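Hi,

Apologies if this is the wrong queue. I'm a grad student, and the batch job for DDE Tnp4 domain-containing protein from Parnassius mnemosyne produced an output file that my downstream script rejects. I'm not sure whether the problem is my script or the file. Here is the sequence I used:
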Amino acid sequence: MSEERRRMLLALAAVCIYDKEREKKNRRCWAKKWLLQRPRYSHINLMAELALQEPNDFRNYLRLDSCTYQQLLSLLEPMLTKQDTCMRKAITAHERLSATLRFLATGRSYEDLQYSVAISKQSLSKIIPETCDAIIATLQEEYLKFPETEEEWLDIAKTFEERWQFPHCLGAIDGKHVKIVPPANSGSYYFNYKKDFSVVLLAIANANYEFIMVDIGINGRISDGGVINRSIFYEKLNTGSLNIPRVARIMNSETVLPYVFVGDDAFSLRPDLMKPYPGPYLSPQQRIFNYRLSRARRIIENIFGILVNRFRIFRTSIKTIDKIVMAACILHNFLRRNCNQYIRVGVDIENLEDGNISTGYRANNELLGLQITNQGQSQTMARYVRDQYMQYFNNEGSVLWQNRFTNLNTFT
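Support response: The file is valid. Your script probably expects a header line. Output copied below for reference.
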């Protein structure tokens, strides 16, 4: 090897060594220093203080009390616990769940939330969907179970009659547009009638302010009259596979009526789905029917309002839509059964004693309602069933306060 060639190789080697050393100096650390001090800067410390000193503030912070939080954590911990490695300790189930609940409660972005929970936005983008998956997998079977037997439907109908004086009612149905960040290259696929991007949340509620069915994912471009037609619920309703009870006599009456769901003008009138009489010029009997139906239907309206008020993620545009919405609906049912102060009578929902349907939260601007559409000529049998209910509500099925409230324009 010549001397000149040897010098060139040595010079090249020296340049390579210099570049590697320079790269090491410029290389960013694998985690920011303040994130490595999570036990010091995390909101976990604040939560511990609030649980001991200010229980009301703890409930406002995560939308549930500390006892209910511990109950929820114990149910989800097996799925949320990760393995520590030789490089670092895993983010605990406590930290994962509290970050997710805070995200649902506030609707803050990952970038903003990372400063409260001391978890990087990159980790949060994985942790929160994973926690939502854990909530769905662990709680759905018990807390969002769709009725499968005739006995389960009869229990729902009995509660509707006892609490809301609407016999043979199997559930209140409604749909809302949930704003989303549209996927890339989706064009106008999710563009709705309000000139925004959304998917439709179709839900049915029982008389206890709990969801019994949630269908999320229908794109907002679909006409609102066709939303229910694309749902699994409607398919089963048409095929008769819901095991709905047969036509029966109403308790303490000779009137025989079918079991029905109640909805608003966004849905077609069917023998098994009642909606109000349309138009401004209604008879007193028709106005009473509309009031009685609206009083039962307002349950689902109130639930949507409570959902928006408790989980303010619905006041923003959501990205991982299906998981977040389903998890929030399941958490609503879980808190409804286990957290005594989750719903306040007279504030969040109607007072059972006054018959007023104007009280309670409603999702006004955050969740857009389904558009009222002309559904064409109703079936003769469907109109007959509605007339039979009207006759019942104006005779043996009347309640003391209905004449007073039919003079108010608070129902649709």
